[in-house]
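Researcher: Next sequence.
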Amino acid sequence: MPGLTYKPHLPASIGLSAIQMEAVAIAGQQNAIVLPGGFRGSALVGDGTGVGKGRIAAGVLWDNYRQGRKRLVWISEKWDLMQDAVRDIKGVGAKELLRGITEQEGKFVFGSNAAVIPLNKFKATDKVQHDGLLFSTYALIRSEDKKGNRRVAQLEQYLRGDDDGEGGYIVFDESHNLKNAVASQRGQESQIGRTVKELLGRMPKLRILSLSATAATDVVNLGYLDRLGVWGPGTPFPNGFGEFQSQIASGGMSAMELIARELKAQGKYVSRTLSFKGVEYSEEEHRLTDEQKDLYRTASKAWSEVYGHAETTINDVTNGGSKAKGRFMSQFYGTQQRFFNLLITTLKIPTAIELANKALGDGKAVVITLVNTNEAAQNREKNKKRDLSDDDEIPDYDFGPKEMLVQLVRDHYPVQQWKDDV
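Model: Next structure:
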């Protein structure tokens, strides 16, 4: 990584660790670069759980505010995360951004002159003039009112100001929400990804930062990261992301690892994790309750019945034979394995919560790692509701164990009739 020459405009004693301050400096250094295409550069923070991406975001915004950029925006997944954002702002000591905010019973209360306000406080037709930070969700940014007034136009007007965006800054927290900004060969572009990509394309002077621990998992997911300067004028891929994607995609995960390494070497990407030095391991036993045992028995019975009915249907109704049975059973056993994996994990949650609360009571910090986030299942549920009108909040999706069994029966149950022919 190239040496850091950028010095954040922050007090000497603040609530940022050396690692977090390094990320603030990297963001500032990349924002100071103007790419050959005329756009300001950007960094990608991909730190793992516990490193403190929230505090990094707060530090970056505070750094820019102290340099005179008074139009700040923080975009995240849900409105509940606004409380976490303010907690991080308080944690770094950004007093200017805590104006008009008090804390009552563990929650922040926002006064009429608060430095941090939610974008949904305004109507889509309002002209926003605010000295401080606007908080929004991705869902709100892509939405519009009944008369077609788009929120992204309102946001652009605010960020552009009277200096063409020079006095604005936008942080994309959990920026993997912007993936599929460019359509892949197998799917279509996401509405929010396309919306933000077009917004940034109209505002070359605007400074931005993206934060996501799962940003570099697939080439197509990088489509919104034009400001990294990997493709476009002056790069080996002058024709843009499409050219980059077509040449890199075939390399699979190995190519993605090379891209991540190259981005790190150029000082555009950081991906740190907490050290495991001195870590001690222990196993905890979760004792099943009678209710959980009944639930497991019910699930086992349901799967047994589906298996039996499918076998009877193939043998006595559809005349599908061994080929039809083989096709169904391959889907059956794969789904069954995922079903019980998720069910067993769910059964352990009460003990996990109990242990976490005990640790918190002892003054310890708790970090919970998810081996499988069920992202693919969540995306399938999102696609089912793609044609619905946009809401401020992401709706609750049913992609739990029950939905797996329902989907197996709905999509793969053997109903095709086979006919013997000579």
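Model: The chain is about 40% helix and 10% strand. The beta strands are 44-45, 71-76, 101-104, 107-110, 116-118, 132-137, 168-173, 207-211, 269-270.
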